[in-house]
Each structure stands twice: as structure tokens, then as C-alpha cells.
Design goal:
three-stranded antiparallel β-sheet; 124 residues; mainly beta; five-stranded antiparallel β-sheet; Gp80-like
């Protein structure tokens, strides 16, 4: 996930200047249909069992998710093309976003899984 949102850029800028920002204590992964630096992930599904999922990372420098992340759907939610990190399970602030390696077509009830170590945040 190479693209930081404007919120995350400002958060890091304040942290580097010792301005004591409130850094996230947990992060949540969401799925959607697009993204941009100002807004982060866009087009998150509404309903159909969709919910952002808490994700834990490990590593020095490059960060990778420690466990598989599973999104369970109770009905069709369309084709999801992007993922994004947030500082809250709902609402909150967007942190980073990126295109999925392959779109996930959710045509009915089922699960979309991001395998362990497949979600990578690289400091650049």
C-alpha cells in the first residue's frame, strides 16, 4: 500500500516534528471500488454483511499482515478493486489505500480473503 492519504501525510508530518499526534492504536482494513490521497478508500460496500476487519502487522520497515483477513458477505456487493486502512472500524480517518492484486467479484454470499503476508505497507 504505497499511497498515503492526506490525513496520514499530515499525521506523519506532525509526528516527525514532535507535535504529539494521536497515532492509531489499531488499524482496520476495508474494501472498495477506488481510492485517492485526499479521501483514501472509496466505494465501500454498505450492508450485505460487510464490515471492516482489524488487521495486525509485523516487520521492520516493510510491514506485512500477520494473519489472513476475511470479509464475509451475506449477499452480492459488486466488484471490489481496492483496499484501504483506517484508524476505526467504522467512520474514522483513512490512512492508506491501494488497488488489489486482482478484483474480487462478490456475486452472492461468500468470503473475500487477504492471505497472511499479502497486505504489504512499504515505507518509501
Amino acid at each position: 500500500m504505497p499511497d498515503l492519504t492526506d490525513y496520514a501525510k499530515n499525521l506523519l508530518g506532525r509526528a516527525l516534528c514532535a507535535r504529539s499526534p494521536a497515532l492509531p492504536s489499531q488499524v482496520f482494513l476495508g474494501l472498495g471500488t477506488g481510492g485517492s490521497d485526499p479521501t483514501g478508500l472509496t466505494g465501500e460496500p454498505a450492508g450485505n454483511g460487510y464490515a471492516r476487519q482489524r488487521v495486525t502487522f509485523t516487520g521492520t520497515g516493510t510491514q506485512q499482515n500477520t494473519d489472513a483477513v476475511r470479509f464475509t458477505f451475506t449477499a452480492a456487493a459488486g466488484t471490489l478493486t481496492h483496499a484501504g486502512l483506517f484508524d476505526a472500524a467504522s467512520g474514522g480517518n483513512p490512512l492508506t489505500w491501494a488497488a488489489l492484486a486482482a478484483p474480487a467479484a462478490v456475486t452472492g454470499a461468500g468470503t473475500v480473503t487477504i492471505n497472511a503476508a499479502a497486505l504489504v505497507v512499504t515505507p518509501t
